[in-house]
Amino acid sequence: MLATVDFHNHSCLSPCGSDELTPALLAVEAMEQGINILALTDHNCGKNLTTFKEACQLCSIMPVFGMEVNTIEDTHILALFGNLKDALAFSCFIEALLPPIDNDPLLFGNQLVVDIEGTIVEQYKKSLLTTCGISIEDLVDEVLSRDGLVIPAHIDKEVNSILANLGFLPSLPFSAIELIKPHQHQEEFSYTMTTGSDAHYLEHVGRRSFQLEVPSLDWEGLKEGLRQGTIYYKGQFKQTENTAQ
Fold first, then answer.
1. Tell me, what CATH number does 47's domain have?
2. CB 178 within 8 A of CB 196
3. pTM of the full structure
4. Residue 245, class by beta-carbon neighbours within 10 Å (0-12 exposed, 13-18 middle, 19+ buried)?
5. How many domains does the chain have?
6. Predicted confidence (pLDDT) per residue in 144-182, tens digit
């Protein structure tokens, strides 16, 4: 079956995200756009994932529980999980690595943990925009050991990407890679190439979703779909093969 997927979205927990982009509104907007598989990937923290699960259930969307981790190399990597318990345990692991620096809401934005109705239940204190002190290689090992997917984010972006900061793509067992413009890199990489909306505002949701051929609409089906790599980018067919696994 062909599923519409978006792996890269923020909520009001990310200081760079809009306070209005609650997990519930994210799920509702994704539902209205026909997205079948949706991830929430706030920076370095998963405290809105429980609400996100509830919202996705109400919207009949398959949730993927994730984070956008800022590694010690100052690159952004998506860590994705099919199970909320695994994602929350990983979130605790990453939060413990964050330096003891408080967020400045006036300078960087709020970090809001909310319930399904959007009511604020916590303002997260530690800054979520800092590096968390884990290397790319160690992060890959950690995520894969927890049955997760690990995808370098927006590698063709000029900031906070592997290519911008390292100058090359390490030969590691990434589950896929994310690009803003995959058509410009068709012959360049052997990994399955995805896109992601990187939504920080409601109007961003779904702007770079993609369609993926999956054998079933569940976690194992999603992983197999990425391994096969049959993807449509906004209506254009592109098939890749993830030879790194």
1. 3.20.20.140
2. yes
3. 0.95
4. middle
5. 1
6. 999 999 999 999 999 999 999 999 999 999 999 999 999
